[in-house]
Structure formats: C-alpha cells, structure tokens
Amino acid sequence: LEKLTYSGTKNGFQAISAATRQFKQVVNLNAPVRPAAPAGNKDLFDLSLTSEQNMLRDTLEAFARDVIRPAAHDADAAGTITDELLAQVAELGLMYYAIPEALGGAGDERSPVTQMIIAETLAWGDLGITAAILTPMGVANALTQWGTATQQSRYLPAFLEEKPLIATMAINEPSPAFNPLQLKTTARTSGNGFILDGEKNLVPLGDKAELFLVAAQLDGQGPRLFLIEAGTEGVSIRKNSGMGLKACATAALKFENVQLDRNALLGDDSFNYQTFLNMCRLGWCSAALGTAQAALDYTITYANERIAFGEPISHRQSVAFMVAKIGIELDDMRMLVQ
Q1: Is 214 exposed, middle or buried (0-12, 13-18, 19+ CB in 10 A)?
Q2: Residue among 246, 220, 208 at smallest CA distance from 79
Q3: pLDDT grade for 1, boundaries at 50, 70 and 90
C-alpha cells in the first residue's frame, strides 16, 4: 500500500491528451435559446407527475434494473464504465431533455422535477454509474440555461452527435471543509481573455471528458464558470478515485497558467452562481434518494426472507419498526427535495 501510494504521488499529474473532437457551429444562433418555465398553476404546490414523467420513470427503472445493476460491480472494480454502457445510455435519449428544440433537442421547458426523476431512478440502480451519466447532462443544462449564443451553437449540438460529447464539472477542491463560495482556483483578466490557475479534485469522468466546466474565482466578479476544452495547454490530470464513485472515474485536475479567450466565460452578467450550486445540490440529493430507496428495498426483502426462531425477522416489532422508520425518513427526504 505504501509503495502504491508513493508511486501514485511520484507520478503525479499528467498532461491531458489533445482533444480529438472538432467543435463546429452547426447552427448559428443570433441569441441564446432558453426553455420556457414549466406550465401549470404556479400558486399550487403539486407533487403529481405528468403522464410523460410517469412513463419516463418506468422506462428508467427498467434500465436501472436490467442494465445498470448488472454492470455496477465490474464498473466499480475497474474504476470506469465501458463504452458499451455509454452507448446504451445514449440510446435512452436523456440528453434531448437538456438541449433546446432549436438545436435538435426536446427541451422545450425547464423542469427540475423531470431532472429529479431521472437522477433518482438511475441512482436506484447504482450511484457511481449514475454520476457518470448525469454529469454531461449537468453541463448541457448549464449551457442551456446560461450559455451565450456562441457557446450554445458551438457545444450543445455535440451532445446529440452519434458519439455524444463527454463533458464534466470541476467544482470541488482538495481542501478541508471545502466551500464552493470560497474558491482557491483563480481566474484573472489578461488582454482579451483570462488566465486560470488552481487545482480541482473528484472530477467525474476526468480522463474521458472532452469539455470541462470549471469554477474559479474571477477577479472583481466572484465565482464564475469557465469552459475549457480537453487538450488546452496547462491542464493536467491525475487519477483520484472516490469511495462509492469509482465507476465515474473521478480525477484531480491542475491548471497552470491556462490561457483562455473571452468566450470561455460561461454566460454574461445574468449568470447566477448560487442558482447553479442549488441545482447541482438538487441533483445530488435526488441521486441520494435513489440510493436510499435501493437500500430500503433490499432491507425489506432481507427482513422478509431471513428466518430466525422459525419465522421471518420482519415479524419482530423491533425490526419492523426500524424498517418503517427508514421508509418514513425516505418519504420526508423526497418531500424536502421536491
């Protein structure tokens, strides 16, 4: 163990290989496209799902059970998910929910509830694989909600190509009690662009990603997000596995004097970093719900099948009440997230 640790530290960061994808503006937008707010009575808090959302949940539940769960053990052991699984995920068409119709998608309205259903149901299969699936969707959602016309035209169509763009977020930093509002990664204005320096860790799909959405402290403006393509000079990577997230191949990134042009800054003055963080947290909370539901389902089955003293242990009140309490707390969490 000491030898492996020493070897990993000694090898350190390695330069990210040049990106093979050539981004091109398939559609030249004159103005950014923003999905409309969800329809319905805004004065009422309605938890009922639409027929489309119910069908989506049923489809994803079958996918989580039949595809994700059988692949979870090997993905965790290998520390990555296979290209075959990524191809199966692409066939689901989930990315279409994040891309506006004007750019080839089906995202005609903003629906955090639909995104919550996707995260929770997939995580019912496996959390690590779900993180790998949802991270590119998160980047696409950020581009849809805040990206400029140039950024949307350049990057969003690539998410719908035969081999979809793999993008990831780099928010976390290797510091105790990390606060995303107090970033040590910095960006300073230089000429007609920016220079970025800093370090990130627990970046999902770090070794596969072709596009990074990086949070940095911009001088005079506070925390902002930057779009950095793989292969950019000054960006290096090191494997950084996270317990429970090995399947999404988390990595550490280092940025040393990275030169970025003006278009690398996501959005304009209307961008709201706190709203971005809130949406990220809702996504992780939803995935945690799915993982907790899977644990409860397993517990119920076990308690009903485990025989002790001639009867299932679920017949004991001490066990039954414990399982019921888990169900109550899970419903509480789901209500809070909604």
Answers
A1: buried
A2: 246
A3: low
Q: Find tokens 């891309």 and name the residue.
A: 99
**Alpha helix segments (H runs only) across the chain:** 2-11, 51-63, 69-78, 83-92, 112-123, 127-146, 149-155, 273-305, 317-337
**239-287 per-position pLDDT tens digit:** 888 888 899 999 999 999 999 999 999 998 889 999 999 999 999 999 9
pTM of the model: 0.88
Nearest by Cα to 98 from 163, 170, 165:
165
Joined tokens for residue 166: 């793999």
**DSSP string of 182-204?**
S-S-EEEEETTEEEEEEEEEEET
| Identity at 276, one-letter amino acid code | F
Q: Please say if the pLDDT value at position 106 is more than 90.
A: no
The tally of CA atoms less than 13 A away on the side-chain side of residue 111 is 23
